[in-house]
Design goal:
Helix content is 37%, strand content 17%. The protein is α/β, with parallel strands linked by helices and 316 residues long. It has a domain of 217 residues: Rossmann fold (3-Layer(aba) Sandwich), CATH 3.40.50. The strands form 4 sheets. It has a 7-stranded parallel beta sheet with strand order 3-2-1-4-5-6-11, with helices on both faces. A two-stranded parallel ribbon has the order 7-10. It has a two-stranded parallel ribbon with strand order 8-13. The structure holds nicotinamide-adenine-dinucleotide and uridine-5'-diphosphate.
C-alpha cells in the first residue's frame, strides 16, 4: 500500500467501524477528517486519536450538506443496529438517502472517490444462499426493517446513478455482520449482547428458536477489505465483504457462554419481525478482484472481543 493516501473524509467516523478505519488509515499516513452526529457512535471511540496531528473531528449530521476539500470519502454514517435504526425510522431513511445525496454531491464537486458502506440487508430475507452480488434480494418494503434495508438500497441506486450520469468514482461495499472491540455495550447487536450478558451472568437472549444463521466477520478483516476496495483502481462494486463461516444464533450463544466461562443460561424471546432466516456471503468476487479474504476465525475474534468487554465492564 502506498503512503500518503490523501485527505480522507469518514462520515460516521466515531462509530464502531469508523473508529477502526480512522486508526488504520492514520497508520497509512492519511489526513483524516471525521464527521459524526454521535447518535450511535461516541467520542470515546476516537478520543485516543485527538492528539494525532492528522486527525480532525467535526460534529456534523450527514442529512445536512457538508463542504470540504477531500480526495476520498468513506461514507459510513448510518445507525447499523436494528434497535438503533428502528428508534427513529424516518431519520434513518433521511440519513441513508439525504446523507448519500450530500456525500455524492461533495464527491462530484471535489472529484473525490466515494465508498458507500452498504449492507447484506439489501438481500433482505434471502431466498438464494449464499448471497452473491448478482442476487437482487427479497426485501419487505413496508416492514420495520425497511427504513434501513430500503434506505441502503436507494443509497446504492444513487451511487450507481451518480456514477453513470456524472462519472463519480464510486465503490460500494456490501458489509455482512461485523463484530469486535468498540461495539457499544448497549449496541443491541447479537455478538455484543451475548458477550455482555455472559460476562454479567445474565440470561442469554436468543430470539426465536435460534436456528437462524449469520456469518460473522472480525473487524480487522472488514477494515482491510474496505481499504482494499477503496484503493483498487478498477472495481466499483457492489462487492460483498464478510466472513463465510456461517453459524446458527444458538451455536453462537453456546460458544460465547463457553469462551466466557459463564454460568448464564439461554432463554428464548420472540423473533423480531422480518428477521432474516439465513445469511452468508459469497465472497468469490472479493477474492478474485481484491485478493481479499478474512483471516480471523470466529473463535479467535470472539476471544479478542470478550477481552475488550471484560476490560470495559470492569470500569462501569
Ligand atoms: P455504528 O452505529 O457504530 O456507526 C455508525 C456511525 O454513524 C455512528 O458513529 C453514528 O453516530 C453515525 N451516524 C448515524 N447517523 C448519522 C447522521 N445522520 N449523521 C452523522 N453521523 C451519523 O455502526 P457500524 O457498525 O460502525 O456501521 C458503520 C456503517 O457500516 C453503517 O453505514 C452500517 O450500515 C454499515 N454496516 C455495518 C455492519 C456491521 O456489522 N457492523 C454491517 C453492514 C453494514
Ligand atoms: N439476536 C438474538 N438475540 C439478541 C440479539 C440478536 O437472538 O440479543 C438475533 C437476531 O434476531 C438475529 C441475529 O441475532 O437473528 C443477528 O442480529 P443482529 O441484531 O446482530 O443483526 P442483523 O443481522 O439481524 O441485522
Amino acid at each position: 500500500m502506498e503512503k500518503n493516501i490523501g485527505r480522507i473524509l469518514i462520515t460516521g467516523g466515531a462509530g464502531f467501524l469508523g473508529s477502526h478505519l480512522s486508526e488504520a488509515l492514520l497508520a497509512k499516513d492519511a489526513d483524516i477528517l471525521c464527521t459524526d452526529n454521535f447518535f450511535s457512535g461516541s467520542k470515546d471511540n476516537i478520543r485516543h486519536l485527538f492528539q494525532h496531528p492528522y486527525f480532525e473531528l467535526i460534529r456534523h449530521d450527514v442529512t445536512h450538506p457538508f463542504f470540504a476539500e477531500v480526495d476520498k470519502i468513506y461514507h459510513l454514517a448510518c445507525p447499523a443496529s436494528p434497535i438503533h435504526y428502528q428508534y427513529n425510522a424516518i431519520k434513518t431513511i433521511k440519513t441513508s438517502v439525504l446523507g448519500t445525496i450530500h456525500m455524492l454531491g461533495l464527491a462530484k464537486r471535489t472529484k473525490a472517490r466515494i465508498l458507500l458502506a452498504s449492507t447484506s440487508e439489501v438481500y433482505g430475507d434471502p431466498k438464494v444462499h449464499p448471497q452473491a452480488e448478482t442476487y437482487w434480494g427479497h426485501v419487505n418494503p413496508i416492514g420495520v426493517r425497511s427504513c434501513y434495508d430500503e434506505g441502503k438500497r436507494v443509497a446504492e441506486t444513487l451511487m450507481m446513478d451518480y456514477h453513470r450520469q456524472n462519472r463519480v468514482d464510486i465503490r460500494i461495499a456490501r458489509i455482512f455482520n461485523t463484530y469486535g472491540p468498540r461495539m457499544a455495550v448497549q449496541d443491541g447487536r447479537v455478538v455484543s449482547n451475548f458477550i455482555v450478558q455472559a460476562l454479567k451472568g445474565n440470561p442469554i437472549t436468543v430470539y426465536g428458536e435460534g436456528t437462524q444463521t449469520r456469518s460473522f466477520c472480525y473487524v480487522s478483516d472488514m477494515i482491510s477489505g474496505l481499504i482494499d476496495l477503496m484503493e483498487n483502481q478498477d472495481v466499483t462494486g457492489p462487492i460483498n465483504l464478510g466472513n463465510p463461516e456461517e453459524c446458527t444464533i444458538l451455536d453462537l450463544a453456546e460458544r460465547i457462554i463457553r469462551l466466557c466461562n459463564s454460568s448464564s443460561r439461554i432463554i428464548h424471546k420472540p423473533l423480531p419481525q422480518d428477521d432474516p432466516v439465513q445469511r452468508c456471503p459469497d465472497i468469490a468476487l472479493a477474492q478474485e478482484k481484491l485478493g481479499w479474504q478474512p483471516e480471523v476465525g470466529l473463535e479467535h475474534g470472539l476471544k479478542q472481543t470478550i477481552a475488550y468487554f471484560q476490560e470495559k465492564l470492569s470500569h462501569i
